[in-house]
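hiii, so i know i said id send this last week but things got crazy w the move. better late than never?? heres the sequnce for the chain we talked about at the cafe, plus the structure i predicted for it. fair warning i was half asleep when i ran it
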Amino acid sequence: MLEIKNVRALIAGVGIALMLAVNGCGDSKNVSIDTNDGVTNILDYVSVSFDGTNGEGTAFVNVDYDGIETEMVGGKDKIKELDEVEDLSELTRYINAVSSISFSIDKNSGLSNGQQVIVSVSYDDTAAKSAGVVFGNEKSRTFEVKGLKK
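okay and structure toks below
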């Protein structure tokens, strides 16, 4: 039987794989987790960092998967409860919802300070509903390119 700790490691692995697939790793955005409204706004956990020189900059999408997961399941106390669950079906539904999340960015190279890039999110509605998760209605967010060397 699969132990809960192994399942949590699997969740973390899925999060890392998704982050790398989006072409970025780096600092995560610190967001205040709100488990009271029942909605997980995925893009609140996304930031974009920029590197390089003006006109040749590169964008990296950074995702705080731990924050998404914590809010999605209802907070740290709920995560502790899931650690003690014998039936893995609930945890599996959460894993499926998180692993269905994907990100895209409209432009991630040849960037100049002041330009804007758009990060879009998509996910499997069926997986989210199965887990009882409500992801927010925001499907994309615009970020301004800044901090590139001149």
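btw The longest strand covers residues 116-122. thought thatd interest u
miss u guys!!
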